Amino acid sequence: GRQAAKSKMEAFQLQTERMGEYLALEVNKSFMQLQLAYKAVKVLEKANATADANLKLIENYFKQGILQKTDVLSVQVRVNEIKNQLQYAKSNVQNASDYLAFLLNEDNTNKVYKPLEELDNTIIISNNNTTLSGNRKDILAMDKSSEAYAKMYQSSKMNFLPTLNAFGSYELYDDTLFGTNAQGYFVGAQLSWKVFDGYKSIGKMEKAKAEYQKAVVENQQYKSQSQLELNKTNRQLKDAENKVNLEKLALEQSQEAYRIRSNRFAQGLEKTTDLLQTETLMFQKELQLLQAVFEYDFTQEYLQFLTK
User: Fold this and answer.
1) In whole numbers, what is the pLDDT of the chain averaged over residues?
2) Other residues' Cβ atoms within 10 Å of the Cβ of residue 137
3) 18 CB neighbour count, 10 Å cutoff
4) pLDDT tens digits, residue range 221-257?
5) By the 8 A CB rule, do 272 and 60 touch?
6) Alpha helices in the chain (DSSP H)
7) What CATH number does domain 2-306 carry, 1.20.1600.10, 3.40.605.10, 3.40.1550.10, 3.30.870.10?
8) Based on the number of CB atoms within 10 Å of its own CB, is 42 exposed (0-12), middle (13-18) or buried (19 or more)?
9) pLDDT of residue 173
């Protein structure tokens, strides 16, 4: 009936609001990806400058006869690799910017977005909620949907009840309605069943009952799945935190290793290939740390979305 339709409309409205929250999450993710893309460009520009400086140094050593032509070629290959990676990173900035413009429904012709804030190398640890909120828009929508089916079932049961008809008859010899005398106006009520509609009503009621029971089961399953997703995301956040800490340590170790190798190389105690490997690893670890920070930050955002 009308109440069931109202509950359905409320459920639809709540689902629409939840979709809006999901789009906001997607915009946040896109913005964070843009931050990551800009930071990757910065790291690779630094790697490019380091590689160019190493190439000059090695070309100088080659001219002095200290190193061989193969050493120069190895460094040139490395320089070209970094320049190629840098170009890809710059394209990635444009791609991330275009996607953000698409989500914001803005014209992105000859336009590149640049965030005011950079992606930080550190993370902020916060206490997170592990309990599913009953006030989450999609959860409320499922409740409203179940409520609608419950009302439809109730309505179908009411159809199966007999109808109540009031009737009245006026006694001609009395001219006062509801008069004080015993005779006069007689008011009564009679119950009537539509016998031939009985089977149709039973069928409708059974269908409404089945739909209601199905809605209840789906509601319970949805809440259970949502709780599972919340539990999983909490674990993923912890994993992401550990990953950030390990990547930070790995970066510090690789930076120290590169510093030692550079000094030894300048003294003629290290091979060019070893220096290149250490340099490659150092910048690789810096990019991996940024990726780990992004993963942590987004997992935190997603967790907030799940507990909203």
Assistant:
1) 87
2) 19
3) 18
4) 999 999 999 999 999 999 999 999 999 999 999 999 9
5) no
6) 2-63, 69-103, 137-159, 198-266, 272-306
7) 1.20.1600.10
8) middle
9) 46
**pLDDT > 90? residue 129:** no
| DSSP 8-state symbol, 175 | -
pLDDT given for residue 280 in this prediction:
95
Concatenating the DSSP letter of every residue in 263-285 gives: HHHHTT-S-HHHHHHHHHHHHHH
Rounded CA separation 271/281 (Å): 16
DSSP 170: E
Q: Are strands 185-192 and 163-170 parallel, antiparallel or unpaired?
A: antiparallel
CA distance 172 to 15: 63
**Site of tokens 């000094």:** 263
Which of the four pLDDT bands, split at 50, 70 and 90, describes residue 192?
low
Phi-psi region at 268: left, alpha or beta (left = phi > 0; alpha = psi -120 to 50): left
Provide the sign of the torsion angle of the four alpha carbons 296, 300, 302, 306, taken in this order. Answer: positive
Residue in this structure with the two tokens 């640049």, named with its chain if needed: 114
